Every structure is written in structure tokens, then in C-alpha cells.
């Protein structure tokens, strides 16, 4: 009796320590990220960093302006979302409401496989196939543009958007669907007037998580966006090369002297990225909590 | 089968040799029935006897069930529902349905009622009137007239069910099907809905599935007893309850099985 209790307690405490470890690791990451970022502000003011228009980390008059990188990330992500959201929601509607069960069951594994492809493979595909197409299509000097990055990111965030939206749509009770059909609504009217509005908070959460997936992506973008750290003009800048925050860190971290201002600047970029993804996940979580159905 | 009912001169709903299968399993076995206009017809029988399946044949909700096969004829005002070129969407405008569990849409009370009329082209300026008259006919207007813009999901179970009835009335059907509408409600809400059904009979033809024998006896004009997919007995409610023709009807009504 005593022995068994002892065992139970041991297992519980091991599991407890493991879960606490995750939290501790997160706090340590935050701590080091923030500490090294703050050291930048001995060199540059926070305002200069956030509003600076030039990222010249290695020239004699070095400048650490975040704007070109932030806007680079934003334009690529915005482009990705513009095309991934309609496609993703349309696919989710098709899979959960329209497709015959056999077709839906056949489609789902492909979406999961799409989610499992390593980003470097996506990048390779983008570089070899999409870059030349964009170059020829718009008659550009280079096909490594924000648009190319957007298309690749869109494809990569589709699985997130589709699976989470589909989950939200399928969780709308069928009693509501039947209620609509019994009033003489067509299947399509039922979908867009009742089912999609009822699943809207879940769909919004899917979109937020899709954005979160896109903004943190590094490897693919490094391979297809050209990595030029200039503020993209809008909207024609979508056809220019850009450089995202993630690509900047990945490209430069290997070459900076540890402890230099440049080193700290990269940490500061990382902190900005961390705060953005944290906020996006937080919003997605808040929306998701609201969509649990109150009908039952 | 009761002669008087078979000879209803102008039945609104006429069912002839209806058979229904779910895959291999036969759920309805050669049902014939003539349901008169402006009456309440109760369908009773033990669980799994086919009464719910039968009522869903009257607005073709069984179309949504996979592997469901139907043979025979169901006519409303002489038009066969299962004939060629029947517009199911149009059919459901004429034959409304209220479900076992109240199923309000997750929107405002007003939008719940306006949903059907909007689909069928009622204009914005007429909508307030349509919504009000539907809510009044469903005897719920006085309780909720001051909060039409609040969510329908905040109403009580009984109010939600009357809202669903109002939503059905707003489409102006001729026939209303009730599939155990009170099974999830308390006795007070149940009596309100029973009263409502009796009042609606003046304007509509009503078919109601119920597990509650007293309910069938209280509100219906005709009663049909189903057992294992067969229609065992169909007649005036009084006759079925007081003087059943079949032994199994009597056993069921007196509570010997079910």
C-alpha cells in the first residue's frame, strides 16, 4: 500500500518537473533575448531602431533601422495571407460540407503531407520553379521578389488555415444545418448564411495562426525573396526583392562578432519578431476560446 | 385500417405503399395513410418504430441520410414529392419542420425569424411585420418583443423551441411537422407548446411525432400507431385510445411495452 503510493508520487513529481522545465526554458530564452537586445540601446536609441529607415550594420556610419526588415516581413506576409485565406477557407468548406466523405478522406492526408514538407524543400522548389516563372511573367531583372515569397508562404500556411477552419466548420452542430435546410434554404445558402458565420471565430483563429506561421518562416524566404534590405514601396514593391526580419537574423548571425552592436541589433530584431508572434498567438487563442459552441 | 379515414375525400397528404431502407435494413414497410387538412395527426410507437423516419419522408429530410432508399408515393395536394423534377427546396417552403432539440441559429432573435423570409425574397420594409406576426402566432412575442436584437441562444429551452416554431411559421408553410418537439422541455413549456399546436391547427395541417401518450391524446385529432416499421393502426384519436382495433395498440397505450 505504502509502496504503491510512493510510486505514484514519484511518477507525478517527474511529470511535474518535465512540464515546469518547459516553462523555465521559455523564461530563459526570453531573458537572454531581452538582455542582449537591451544592450543595443547603449549604441542606438529605441526610437532610432524602431523608426530607422536604413539597415547598414557593417558600413562606417552604421545604422540599425528596423523599418526595411519589418516592412519586408509585413509585405510578404500580407501577400501570403491575401491569397492563402480565400483558398484555405474555400478548401475547408469543400472538405467539411461539400465533398463526398470518400473524397474528403482522400484529401486530408495530402494536406497533412503539405504541412510536413521541410521549409528548405519549399525554398528549393520556389527557387527552381517559381522564381523563373515570376521573372518571365512580369519581365523583371530578377524573379526573387516579395511576390515570390508571398506565394511560397501562402502555400506553406495553407495546411494550418485549412485544418483549423475545417475543424471549426465541422463543429457547427448538424441540427442547425438541418434547421436551415428545413426552412427551404439551399445547401449553398445554408453554408454561407449559417454555417460559415457560426464558425467565423474558429476561422479567424485559423487565419491568425496562418499569419503566425508565415511571419516566423525563415529558410524559404531567404531562398526566394532576394534579401535586399530596402523599404519596399507599395504596392509595386511587391515585385521588388525584400528582406524579412527572420532572413536577416539567419544570414547575419553567423558573421557578427559576439558582443558587438550588430550582434545586439540582431537580438533586438529577434525580440520584435518574438513579440509579434506572441501577440498573434494570443489573439488566436482568445478568438478560439469564444468559438466553442454554446448550443449544447 | 379505419374506413372513415381511408375515405377522407380531400386528404392533404396522401401516402401510398411507402417503403424505406437504410442500407439493407428496411425501416418503413408498406405504409399507406391519408392525412386530412387542418388537423393534428399524432404518430406514436416505441423507439425505432419508424415514426421519425416517416415524418422525415414528408419534407424529404431523409435525402440527407446516406444509403437511404425510398419506394412508393407521398403526395401533397396531389403532387408526388418523389416524382421527377420535384424542387426539394420549394417543397420545404410548403412543409415546415420543428425538431426534437430546439435549434436556433447563433444570431439575433430577429435574424432567426427573418432568415427564411429573406431567403424567399420578402423585402426589408415588410420584414418587421413578418417577424412580429410570426412571433405573435408562436405565442412568444410578449416575452421577447423588447430584446429582438439579443442572441437567440440566450433564451430558455422552451422559448428557443417556440422561437423555432415562429421561424417555421415565418416561411408561411401549409403543413408543419413536429418531431418530438417537447421531449427536452419542462412541463410548463410543454403545455405552452401543446396549446400553441392546437391553435395552429386552424391554419395549418400538423403532423407530430411524440413519445408522450397523454400528449397525443390531448392535442391530436388522429393517431397513427407504428410498430417495427409498420403502420399498425390509424384512426380518430378517441377511437384509437378508447377502443383500439389491434391488440398491440392496446398493449402499447396501456403501457405493457414501449
Explain what you see.
The complex is a heterodimer of chains A (296) and B (258). Chain A has helices spanning 2-38, 46-51, 67-98, 101-116, 119-138, 146-170, 174-182, 187-198, 200-215, 219-224, 245-252, 261-291, and strands at 55-56, 63-64. With 296 residues, chain A is mainly alpha-helical. A two-stranded antiparallel sheet of chain A has the order 1-2. Chain A starts with a helix and ends in a 5-residue tail after the last helix. Chain B has 258 residues and is α/β, with parallel strands linked by helices. Chain B is built from eleven helices and ten strands. Chain B has helices at residues 3-6, 51-55, 88-94, 109-119, 124-137, 141-144, 157-170, 187-200, 213-219, 237-242, 247-253; strands spanning 11-22, 25-36, 40-44, 68-76, 79-80, 95-98, 175-179, 205-209, 222-227, 230-236. The radius of gyration of chain B is 18 Å and the shape is globular. The interface between A and B is medium-sized, with 21 and 27 residues.
Mean pLDDT of chain B: 92
How many domains make up the coordinates of chain A?
Answer: 2
- The multimeric state of the shown protein is heterodimer
Low-confidence stretches of chain B: none
Poorly predicted regions of chain A are none
Q: Helical content of chain A, roughly?
A: over 70%
Topology:
The complex is a heterodimer of chains A (296) and B (258).
Chain A: H1 2-38, H2 46-51, E1 55-56, E2 63-64, H3 67-98, H4 101-116, H5 119-138, H6 146-170, H7 174-182, H8 187-198, H9 200-215, H10 219-224, H11 245-252, H12 261-291
Antiparallel strand pairs in A: 1-2
Helix pairs in contact in A: 1-12, 3-6, 3-9, 4-6, 5-6, 6-9, 7-8, 9-12, 11-12
Chain B: H1 3-6, E1 11-22, E2 25-36, E3 40-44, H2 51-55, E4 68-76, E5 79-80, H3 88-94, E6 95-98, H4 109-119, H5 124-137, H6 141-144, H7 157-170, E7 175-179, H8 187-200, E8 205-209, H9 213-219, E9 222-227, E10 230-236, H10 237-242, H11 247-253
Parallel strand pairs in B: 3-8, 3-9, 6-7, 7-8
Antiparallel strand pairs in B: 1-2, 1-4, 4-5, 9-10
Helix pairs in contact in B: 4-5, 4-7, 5-7
